[in-house]
Amino acid sequence: MMPDDIACAKDTRDLLIECCVEFIHLLASEANEICEKETKKTIAAEHVIAALKALGFEGYLPEVEVVLQDHKTQQKVKDKDKKSGRLENSGKTEEELLLEQTRLFAEAKERHQTQQH
Questions:
Q1: How many Å apart are CA 70 and CA 56, to the nearest integer?
Q2: In the chain, is it the N or the C terminus that has fewer CB atoms within a 10 Å radius of its CB?
Q3: What is one GO biological process annotated to this record (predicted)?
């Protein structure tokens, strides 16, 4: 995990790893407290950013915000691809899809009416 241009003894590497783990625990704990104050159940990226600020690590914010924006952009593209991919991969034309949708709505309406009688 160490960059190629950094050489250090095994005990130094282990100490660095312990520091990284401790930093992650500290950050996660602070983010969790912020999350709980907002009565949320899941830690969001905004909670982690607030935790960095609260702990005095503002220097990390520009890089973290760039990564977060990249992630959001990738997620939007991924979600869009999923939605459009389902229709495109169905092998049906738009007309066939509309006919199927109409048929499914009619069947659902008929079931609903049957259940009411």
A1: 24
A2: C
A3: RNA polymerase II preinitiation complex assembly
